[in-house]
Design goal:
Length: 112
């Protein structure tokens, strides 16, 4: 069974950093583009970042310059490094990839 599992969320003060991980199991996803999404309380789901199989990246304007997406295909894992966090970054963060669906999410809470 293929699945994605996110980890690394938590509670952090504004200005702090977190690194989220998205680990794939059941199959390698080196050939897949992977997206990070988030959904904050009372907000619509937002695509935060994408990384292609070739390592090209794309970011939402709201996180550009603060978040970095990367991948380690040997570990079958995609990361989201989040710096200079703001209270409005508070959300459940999900990763998703074609053929893998979406993970269960990890909560990120940024206090002011």
């Amino acid at each position: 069974q293929v699945q994605l599992v996110e980890s690394g969320g938590g509670l952090v003060q504004a200005g702090g950093s977190l690194r989220l991980s998205c680990a794939a199991s059941g199959s390698a996803f080196g050939g897949n583009a992977v997206d990070w999404y988030r959904q904050g309380p009372g907000k619509q789901r937002e695509r935060v970042a994408t990384i292609t199989s070739g390592g090209l990246t794309n970011y939402a304007d709201s996180v550009k310059g603060r978040f970095t997406i990367s991948r380690d295909n040997a570990k079958n894992t995609v990361y989201l490094q989040m710096n200079s966090l703001k209270p409005e970054d508070t959300a459940v963060y999900y990763c998703a990839a074609v053929g893998f669906g979406r993970g269960q999410g990890t909560q990120v809470t940024v206090s002011s």
